[in-house]
Predict the 3D structure of the following.
Amino acid sequence: MEKSMAQRWQLKDYVFAALMTVGLAVTAKVTQPFASAIPLPGATTIAWAPFAAIFLTLGMARLRRSGAVALMAGVLALILGIISWTISAFLVAALLAAELVGLVSGGFAGRTTRLLANMAFFAATCLTGWFIGVTFLRGTPVGDLAAQWLTQPWVLVPAAVVSALAGAVGWWLGEQIVFQLQRAGKLDVAR
Amino acid sequence: MSLAKLPQFLGSVNPLLKIVLSIALTACAFALKSVWANLLLVSVLMVLTFVSVRVETKSVVGVGVFLLIFTGLTGTLSGDWGYAGLGAARLLVLILPALLLPATTAPGDLVRAFQAVRLPPFLVLSLMLTWRFLPIIQQEAQRIIEANLLRGVDLARRPGLWFSGLFTPLIFRIVSYADDVTVGLETRGYDPESPRSTSQPLRWRPGDTLFALGAAALLIAVGGLEWTA
């Protein structure tokens, strides 16, 4: 059964979204050592994206409607905000990008919408993280030099594209899990 | 950096106040260009860190080495050691509040803070569930990793097996938890749209006023140093 935008959110939706948020947080912790090895600000999400996108895809597939990504990533942004609001800032920018895709497509019921939403989410995390990183670097001679180098399109564009592709890989893995869960009778989703 | 919790005065400060202060301090890290303003903030934050949380010696050494390398590299490349020191101080202003707030705020306090700012009840429910299940799911992940180790698969060294060996079984467990929790809440008549009550509502205490005044005085002093520079 398709879920319309007007249909009320139910308790099971909130619980499922919260547990997907936990999944996002766990993947952030697991991939942190790999992420810290990437020297470019913002692009560190490349290590997180393939695994985080699994949970985003699963949440979108189960909840289907607009607001699903906001509920998952928004709660994560609130929690991680106590570590630093810069993390919240790039998560909010990313969820807005993904929700825009969902809004245009009328929800996340379709696989293509979920793919595009994931790509938009991780490209936005990269660009926002980049912007924050470069802003922080400015003010010292070396920082200005680094910021000047980092703002070159031949560095910035490939990083955003690779982030989006990493999100696409995660989407593909997420759809595999959705299929497995569906076959096991654990998930009622539209494909 | 690994921080062990101690009984500390920052732990009793209103969590909302700490969140606001943390946001202000992070903004300072981006905005301040004066060495003295940064050094004042760093010194106060360092005192708070060492007073409020038990910091392991190896963590101090690790951060110290990192800062020395960062400062040395910046100073050598730029030839300006003042700016190099400024960069290190700004980095510390960004790092220290991020360590202090989580280490001195209990999850329950955070939830009470979100309730106090009148977040929608469904959002508070999501936050509570996330806080409650984060350690449980981490334990599940650890169990799966150990089960793989028993079978001779060291997942830490083989990221290629993370999907099939870690994430697939973990997601199946998470989905099972989601079903169980939903049934548990529904059988207790839980309504995500209704406002929640708390036995220990968040209150503003005299200690919070003192802390807020101290923080305001610090920020005014920092602003003054930045202005005169």
